């Protein structure tokens, strides 16, 4: 039973011509080094291969240091709120846009309500707030 379960492997040698043809076919479709550098497979550097890893580590460390320096100079949230860069809101960021729209509509409703109750120009002239020649309706 153990012999029946064994998988037979084809061990016939590949002909030298077939092997050469296969290798030529693969070499013809091989991407050039510029394409590999563009795809970040090969490093685009003139450094020796033994130094490429160290150069890459130094570049990564430089970028990390630059980001840390930028984050240290970043203003605090309270300062951004004081300068009106960030809105002062306790709402979740996902609904702050809707909150802003609601506030806008509430201000419009308040303004509309106040416009309905404002005094007419005749009353302002009568009360001495406007001159008779300043009547905006004429």
Which descriptors apply to this entry?
mainly alpha; 138 residues; elongated
Written description of the protein model:
It is a single chain. With 138 residues, the chain is mostly helical. The protein has seven helices and no strands. It has helices spanning 2-5, 16-28, 33-38, 49-73, 77-82, 96-116, 121-126.
Write the layout of secondary structure elements.
Blueprint: H1 2-5, H2 16-28, H3 33-38, H4 49-73, H5 77-82, H6 96-116, H7 121-126
Q: Report the principal-axis shape.
A: elongated
Helix content: 55-70%
Hey, roughly how much beta strand do the residues contain? Answer: under 5%
Main sheet specs: none
| Oligomer type | single chain
Using DSSP, what is the number of strands? 0
> What would the average pLDDT be, to the nearest integer?
84
Gap between N and C termini, in Å?
Answer: 113 Å
Residue runs with pLDDT of under 50 for 5 or more positions:
none
Q: How would you briefly describe this protein structure?
A:
This protein has helices spanning 2-5, 16-28, 33-38, 49-73, 77-82, 96-116, 121-126. Helix content is 59%, strand content 0%.
